[in-house]
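Crash report, auto-generated. Payload:
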Amino acid sequence: MTAVSVAAAKAPARRHLLLVVLAAWVLGWVVLRGRDTLALGGAELTPLHTALGEGMDAVDDSRNSNPFFLYFVNYIRLFIDEAVTFVQALISQPSFGRPVPVLGWLGVTGLAAGIALLYGNRRVALLTAAGFLSFGVLGLWQESMDTLALTLTAVALSLAVGIPLGVWAGLSDRFNRLVTPVLDFMQTMPTFVYLAPLTLFFLIGPASATVATMIYAIPPAIRITAHGIRHVSHETLEAGASLGATAAQSLRHVRLPMAKQTIIVGVNQTIMAALSMATIAALIDAPGLGQTVLKALQTLDVGTAFNAGLAIVIMAVVLDRVTSAASRRVEAERRAGRLRSPRGRRLEVAGVLGVAGVLGYLSYTYVWAAEFPAEANLGSYVRRAADAASVWVQDNLAAYTDAVKNLLTNALLNPFEALLTGSPWWLVAAAAVAVALLVGNVRAAVVTAAGLAALVLLGLWQDSMVTLASTLVATVLVMILGVVAGVWMGRSDRADTVLRPVLDAGQTMPAFVYLVPILGLFGPTRFTAIIAAVVFAAPVAIKLVAEGIRGVSATTVEAATSAGASTWQLISKVQLPMARSAVTLAASQGLIYVLSMVVVGGLVGAGALGYDVVAGFSQHQLRGKGLAAGLAIVVLGIVLDRVMRAATQRADAASHGGAHRTSHRN
Amino acid sequence: MRVVTLVTGAGLLLTACGGAKVGESGSAQSGAKTGCGTFNLAINPWVGYEANAAVIAHVAEKQLGCKVVKKDLKEEVAWQGFATGEVDAIVENWAHDDLKKKYIEEQKVAVNAGPTGNKGVIGWYVAPWMAEKYPDITDWKNLNKYADLFKTSESGGKGQLLDGDPSFVTNDEALVKNLKLNYKVVYAGSETALISAFRQSQKEQKPIIGYFYEPQWFLSEVRLVKVNLPAYTPGCDADPAKVACDYPPYELDKIVSKRFADSGSPAYTLVKNFTWTNDDQNLVAKYIAQDKMTPEEAAAKWVADNPGKVKAWLPTG
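Recovered output after restart:
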């Protein structure tokens, strides 16, 4: 028998085994329902939670005597504080004895557009100018500049740390293995868990906010840099080696230039991650747009929150397009060699800097160029329109949305959750390990077993199962949306033009902005939390699927069309199967994004782990439990990620006959 | 070269347009009275707190010449600020006995600066239309009779008791159990979620019962009605697992850092003397939440309307 036919014969057997496992689980649930479910009430603590809380207290108390804090942390704090304050003095806060910052709106806009022109192209320069002007038009110039100052400082520091570490991880397999779980941890640990402790180390102020942002923004910088360094082609490296290049020379003259484009993609992702922290960092007094959003939320003022959220979206889109254009330009220049003469470039640089300099001087000197004219403030219209839209949606759609909510909750979520939370924990664990073994491999099964054991030890088994049920349901919805919209977007350029800005907004609009309208539609329920997660996670899935569909070779599509395949056949028989690895990547990324919304879900009625984390952040006696819940979310993330990856590998091996594929994340 | 000439030309042209210069219009600092210096005021994230803080900040700035630095912080982070010396005062504190024990008794970095005059109430509330339609619902003994009304997709066949701004301690799970109520506690998870639920309840006549508290600005929009649980007696909540009585009445108070209290700053005297009624706070909170004034405008308006009350807070001499 050949290997292929073995695989073909095994696949249906595997599917049958999977069904057997599920049937056994349901049977076990019917018989043993309610036994060993390890439930824990909202305010109840286990000894571990108390111990964790006490451990955190002990760290607090040693802060003033421990030399680590006195000599190390304090200097870092001082340095970061100074750095942020300096950037704020330049663009956002009154400084150097003047009532306004050094650069006013005209200078900042001119400088930003100039940079976009020099590193990107004319189109993104125009977009940048328009974007920056819109901050003033929305009536949020100073808040936007505060957010920009903090984000840029955090990004600069993240890159200063992340790129060297990324290069190291790219060169050394051992370091890469060491750092990967740490990065997983940094990306999945909910920010709420470390926000309060951070202010003990770095005090209340810009330093804490910057460090909180960096914890979340460094991982993409490291990961993507390492990916870029690793994937420089062997031929190029060998060519360098044959010319007698030392390791250092090869890094400097071959690897780094070749990886430059990928590294800029890393910069892009780092900026996006940093910006997504703007609202949460405002909980520890980070200045800027996040404050506006949170304040508005206290009075359920949707209009004001939306206005500020819109400014964040615009900032994200501008920064994204500029860095993407810069990355494409690097690639184009590398391919074509130097296009322009150095002299032409020098003239261009001098001209752009000259104009920016004049604008900067004007905004330094004259009031009209320093303070954005109040007459141009159109923020109140945006606020009123958003308010009206939110009220209309709640008044007119609530009747339908209630029905949808009840249908999905009763038909899908409740039975699944009952199965997970009502079965004895050992039965769930056994079923999960078996599933991991069947869809993945032995390694995935081992990780699953260890992870589930950790959940039991953390004392949060039942809460974890409730969260898991919602997470999986949300992921299913994300994938349905991802495939439907992704196929549409991948097949039609017009759909792409229409959808892309909407997806960008979904990804970067702070969830706090749309919590009020969706609470109005669905009430404080687990379903509301699922919707919030879908809004955030679906764009990634859609973009990845569309990318995959577009990647299917044109000749294959033409061949199928000429063979008489209908559109439906073309999609279901050719395009989707060929984009299979993109679809599985979309599923695993979608899942991680859904998981990162667990805490936000806790704010709107999801209960379980998300609520535990929020309560731990708010109540002193629950902080140990909050930490445990944060750890449980990390554990869920790692288990699900490893199982998904193993399943992806299996799917790839089956479809490509074991062809090598580079797995990449983010 | 041509580019440079163009640039300079454009620059000259623009310069000629002129306009007021920065710093020219004599933004002379009003001669601040000495002796106050910087006053670091924590702003906890709810509107009632913001009302207290805005009025205190307004008086400290305008009448005492202090430089007030407002810091937006969650309660626990604000308390930590006493230890790190970055927060001088918290001006509306809801009990937090554990934090008092840690920072006042053990670390001795904070002291109590007396009540704000506001009386806090925590309990179970229903929307006014429900109290009208089912008058006896405000007695806990009748709650089981109405449990069916409160069933939702979240409550697993029982009545739903909507809990939870996570900032407050709740005994609700124990209460439901000990009072033998056929209800399930569902965690809404934030004040925003609670308010939208009650707002929806009143607008669409949708039955909701949940945890709420006063003073709160939302009550001036929808006057929620409190459900009477077995009356509170001192000590009846001693064992959290066996609680079967209502929440205690809260005397909201002010906490300041030890250093601030010892500094002799006139701002400390202001904070110590500050006291007003629930109606006062509700009015300022209404200015902020419903009339959409900034906290500064709201405070200025209230202070201008109540000079007598403000005078009593100021240091004498």
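Post-recovery validation: Chain B has twelve helices and nine strands.
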